[in-house]
Amino acid sequence: xxxxxxxxxxxxxxxxEFALNEFIQKGLKAVKMNDIAFALSMSKRTxxxxxxxxxxxxxxxxxxxxxxxxxxxxxLRKESKNSLETLIKLYRQRMNEMSHVNPAFLSDIQxxxxxxxxxxxxxxxxxxxxxxxxxxxxxxxxxxxxVDFKLLISSFDVMxxxxxxxxxYKQYGLENMVNTINMTFLRGLCTQKGLEIIDSGNYxxxxxxxxxxxxxxxxxxx
Length: 222
Prior knowledge:
Number of helices: 11
Helix content: over 70%
Shape: globular
Order of helices and strands: HHHHHHHHHHH
Structural class: mainly alpha
Radius of gyration: 19 Å
Strand content: under 5%
Number of domains: 2
Distance between the termini: 50 Å
């Protein structure tokens, strides 16, 4: 890669990081391509040359974020003593990121067909990773052996899509919804050894909600 290509890639990544942050915090509808171009001191034409349109930009933002997520996961794996510790650290990171998500963002993305198709393909990849992770936890004595993980992961996937399409997060709050469901599932999967890791002081799954800093539902008076 020559210097010009490297510079273009850096510019593109900077645009995606900024745009995704704006989309997540304000919602897709509230953020225009003009807004992004103005904030980054670049032309709207350049943005369209980079991404095609707003939907194309969002898809590329998701791809870029997914790549960063893989890198974070591998880094945490190297730093962790076992698979469950890796999951807990990653989970706490994701919950912290979720505190910045505007419910309007989740509502808006469902109106973009290409975005939803992309998320569907990503979902299949994540399910395969979840299955491999579950099998690893069983081998390490952290998850129970008497669970049909393929069935569980498929059911979890269907439930997540239903929660998204029915916008349940508006009623209960996104962090509260995700934490309640994930904690229930995870604790039900764990052996005594796994539960001891979860409940230990070093790897507690305590979230902002449990410390009083919770993400309020959209209809909150606050």
